[in-house]
Amino acid sequence: MNSKQIEVLENYITEHKLKITKQRRAILNAFIECENHVSVEELYGIVSEQEPKIGLATIYRTLALLTKSGLALEMDFGDGQKRYESSYMNAHHDHMVCTECGKIIEFNHPLIEKYQEEIAIQNGFKITSHKLDLFGHCNDCL
Amino acid sequence: MNSKQIEVLENYITEHKLKITKQRRAILNAFIECENHVSVEELYGIVSEQEPKIGLATIYRTLALLTKSGLALEMDFGDGQKRYESSYMNAHHDHMVCTECGKIIEFNHPLIEKYQEEIAIQNGFKITSHKLDLFGHCNDCL
DNA sequence: GTTGCTGCAAAGTGTTTGCACCCTG
DNA sequence: CAGGGTGCAAACACTTTGCAGCAAC
């Protein structure tokens, strides 16, 4: 899976006449291994452990690249910073965010998706993406 | 409806030993009359027409006040700025956002709400709020 | 050797805050 | 007339950008 993602990135890079660098590899590796929904700052921390010379701007630029190449998905849970998840990790899912401890539970409900599509059609709307976040308290924080 | 909201605000203000000011009235009025999903900057523009001396910081502070008093709801459509809607205008609803022209269609689907609740319970999660945004293209932008 | 990439610092953007003065209650 | 509210500018947090040197192709 790891190597598959490197392949996807390298394909994208070659197709767009871009270059593969040590930094991009390092960031991609850290991104694949770290847990989902990393913030830029968190990823920067992880990458810095192994490649201390990498700058924050490079993390930003590489995450933008990963997003364009389809490897990463940009998320925003309204806490003022972007978070990213690997689109290869799991299929599409939505999120329950515990407002107490920050835990994120992923879920997917086919019927919810179905009714979204249904109501969109009723409004002459063509969905390209959606986002559903439930906020509240998880088991441990009740 | 207008007067009802002023009442709500004045109640909140009195209860919290705060003060009613010309600025707060002006901002509340503009907020009630303008269309839903205003950004801070937009509201600032509208308010400035009638009260040119009002500062941007006051808009921010008053919108925070309106949110705390339950009159306004804070939204974030991922465009990098907060937007607000009046919670008295309509009942709860979700949004379809046209990524082409920015149009926002409001909708509500009881079954979607029901299945959200259902899957939350399955995960031992207690929902306090949720947000569902569909992104795509509206009728005019296909 | 081109041309894109990086690190750094500077600039941007949206939002919050400190402070002296003002006004409501 | 006390204590909160306001305007202004400075501070903030996160993100983007300009640029000179560097590295991949």
Describe the structure.
Two copies of one chain form a homodimer. Chain A is an alpha+beta fold and 142 residues long. Chain A has five helices and six strands. A three-stranded antiparallel β-sheet of chain A has the order 1-3-2. A three-stranded mixed β-sheet of chain A has the order 5-4-6, with helices on one face. In chain A, helix 3 crosses helix 4 (56-68). The radius of gyration of chain A is 17 Å and the shape is globular. Strand 6 of chain A pairs antiparallel with strand 6 of chain B, so a sheet runs across the interface. Chain A binds a DNA duplex (25 and 25 nucleotides) through helix 2 and helix 4.
Uncertain segments of chain A of ≥5 residues (pLDDT<50)?
none
* Beta-strand fraction estimate of chain A: 15-25%
- The quaternary organization reads as homodimer
* C-alpha-based Rg of chain A, rounded: 17 Å
> Could you give a short account of the major beta sheet of chain A?
3 strands, antiparallel
Please state the average pLDDT score of chain A.
Answer: 92
Q: Treating each run of at least 4 consecutive H or I residues as one helix, how many helices of chain A?
A: 5
End-to-end Cα distance of chain A, whole Å, is 37 Å
Count the beta strands of chain A.
Answer: 6
Largest interface: A-B, 33 and 33 residues
**Backbone shape of chain A:** globular
How much helical structure, as a percent, in the residues of chain A?
40-55%
Question: What is the helix/strand order of chain A?
Answer: HHEHHEEEEHE
Structural class of chain A: alpha+beta
Order of strands, main sheet of chain A, comes to: 1-3-2
